[in-house]
What does this fold into?
Amino acid sequence: MEQLEKGKISTSQLILLTMGLLFASQQILASIFAITIKDGWLAVLPALLEGLALIIIIGALVHKFPHKNLIAINDLVFGSFFGKIVSLLYLCFFLSIISFNLMYMGTFMLFLMPETPNWVFILFFIGLSTSAVRNGIEVTARTASILTLIFLVEIPFTIILLINKINFQELLPILNIPLIDFAKTSHLVYSATFGEAIVLLMLVPALNNAKDIKKSFLWAFIIFTPLLISIIVANITVLGESAAVFTYPSLQVVRTINIRNIIIRMDILVVLGELSMNFIRITIYHYCLTLGTAQIFKMKTYTPIIIPLGIMAIILSFSLFKNTLEYRSFMTNIFPLYSFPFEGGLLILTLVVAYLRPSLKK
It folds into this structure.
């Protein structure tokens, strides 16, 4: 059984769901500044080109296998046995992304509330995610749409408040870094943002119109890209080269806002944005992990495994990294390589095999 629930989401909800997933990537800003310092905003453009290539691949797969999700496509292309192996690899990737984000949110909140153990925040987030997944994709999509719309208003509002702090001279000189560092940063941006759209292939059966998935991703990428560039530029032009020093540069930037001692302490905007966007990301991955696991083992419902999979994610979040510096080093140097098979390699292989196998040519 491919669709274990009857929930449906519209094209506009998919666009906002995708954008919420992408905006949760602000945790990579510190890594971007550590490599490129001032050219991080330019690195977003080649990353967008990689994202557009991903849209073409996803669109081709959805066109070839209408109303099939990632698990069903793997079974059709690679056969029942090897298809399940490929699907299990994807599910392990989804589980690791949940763990990475739980760990990040635990340390982020610990930075704000150092007296509270980080496991409290991790349990809080997985509890919220569990509740959302149990309520189904329709509730998740509606909630994500509202949170994303609020965040879309918050970004330009914050930048307007920063106008008197911005110094565009900090962007100069342009491209004063080795080409290999620029390429590394660009792929880092892709792997932590646009590349993660592959998880939404799990939602194809829930779409009111699956043919709109290319258009939805395209709109989400086009709206997201200038906003991400605006965030990066704001961080650089306000903090200068010191942006590479801060673990949470956006938080530090917003803390500089002080308009006549009336509008101050606006860092609550960054905190609420991080909380809401990462809630969307964790919930999407949790839902797709649960749905895919139930589908592989041919379960009639996915609800019994929501909590066990959440517990697995919690255990991994505590065991993968010792501290924030180790996590940041992983995101900067290893994650782009670790994620490539799932955000590019396997999808390309799937598409090639799908068009070469005689039984799938029609």
The chain has a mean pLDDT of 87. The chain has 14 helices and no strands.
